[in-house]
Design a protein that fits this description.
4-stranded mixed beta sheet, 49% helix, 2 domains, alpha+beta, Glutaredoxin, 225 residues, two-stranded antiparallel ribbon
């Protein structure tokens, strides 16, 4: 286990100093980078209590949830990195920013209950070794239920529900994969089941900047074959 990059109070001060960007994504980043082991620390507890007063008790629930998850995942580090994540606050505009700071892009995976091809993507394609290797280096993927009622912040900053976001983006059939570039622009929208080769090509198309070059995904795929 590596040493702490920050002292406990230093960690608290960094969060407090970045109050304007406090979010689930930002906290996840701070924890992943700076919190390898949690120790009992009176000053740390005092600092967290002050943050609760400033940000509300919902903050501390999210914070400790993130600490717990970080300990679990850091303590049981898998052989391969995981690119599939869950947003605790469904602020996808912020998640794009967080991913970009790590040199990655956000993918929104739109699904719904009873979608067989969504399940096939989850069980057959997403965990494939080649996909895991490439996508963990370049992407963060999060899911959204097109019939869900959770409040979300869309990639362009609108506050709505999962249903509202699906309607806004005209997502009707599933699965749909919306790839966002680091600047928040939609780089690719892929609908339907994608086999392993096509899913990898979709990621490569986005990373290579296919849309910015004025090249369609269809043409990009043809050029690769």
């Amino acid at each position: 286990m590596g040493r702490l990059a920050l002292t406990p109070m230093g960690f608290v001060r960094q969060i407090r100093g970045n109050k304007s960007v406090i979010s689930a994504g930002k906290l996840r980043m701070y924890i992943a980078k700076n919190l390898c082991l949690v120790h009992s620390h009176r000053q740390f507890a005092t600092g967290l209590r002050a943050l609760c007063i400033e940000n509300g008790w919902g903050f501390i629930v999210k914070w400790f949830s993130l600490v717990f998850l970080s300990i679990v995942f850091l303590g049981t580090a898998p052989a391969q990195a995981e690119y599939r994540e869950v947003s605790l606050d469904n602020n996808f505009q912020d998640e794009i920013e967080v991913a970009a700071e790590d040199g990655k892009r956000l993918i929104l995976f739109f699904h719904q209950a009873g979608c067989p091809y969504c399940d096939k993507m989850r069980t057959r394609i997403h965990p494939a070794p080649a996909v895991m290797d490439y996508y963990s280096k370049h992407f963060v993927m999060m899911e959204s239920n097109i019939k869900g009622n959770l409040e979300v912040v869309t990639p362009d900053g609108d506050v709505t529900t999962e249903i509202g976001m699906a309607r806004k983006l005209r997502v009707r059939a599933t699965p749909v994969f919306a790839f966002y570039d680091t600047d928040g622009t939609l780089a690719l929208r892929a609908t339907g089941y994608l086999d392993e080769e096509l899913f990898l090509l979709a990621g490569q198309y986005v990373v290579d900047g296919g849309k910015k070059m004025g090249k369609s995904f269809y043409r990009y795929v043809q050029e690769q074959n």
